[in-house]
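Q: What does the assembled structure look like for these inputs?
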Amino acid sequence: MAANFYSDVIAKDTRFGSLARIDDDQLLEPVTRALVQEIVSAARSIGIDVMVWETYRSQARQELLFTQHVTKLRRVGVHHYGLACDIVKVVGGEPSWKGDFSFLGQLSKSANLIWGGDWGNPAVHHSFIDEYHVQRCAVTREPVLFAGSWYPDAGYNPYKDEVPVLFANVAAATRKGQ
Ligand SMILES: [Zn+2]
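A:
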């Protein structure tokens, strides 16, 4: 695969194997980072204070969260590629997961990011919901991302991603959450 943000920046970062939560947006792929910043500003402009909670996540941390039942996905997730971010509210100076997060769904959609509240497909029932999560990768595209054979370019829009049916079926069969 051609050089990309994952191989050039993430794989070389000293925090590549970090077990700790990372909220540094410099480990978000640049387009994802810009869109996350837009979402944060837009939320604040409508009176909802939010913060970036987690950006990059190592495979070791993914495994740790899996054993702690925080995530349903054991091996890898979109966070590992710098293409996903968790955004939470700020209430009284503290992070908060309480209340309605549908605003994040609306802001994600306008930013062309997939929201974990509906995974880009509100018409379908999802067994796993992650209302604090946004990602710049269509769910159906995850298998090739995880396989290392694809990485989004700057113009990629997950809402316009036409994944061949075979990939979509594989994704549906293997998907258990983020
Ligand atoms: Zn997430």
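The longest strand covers residues 84-91.
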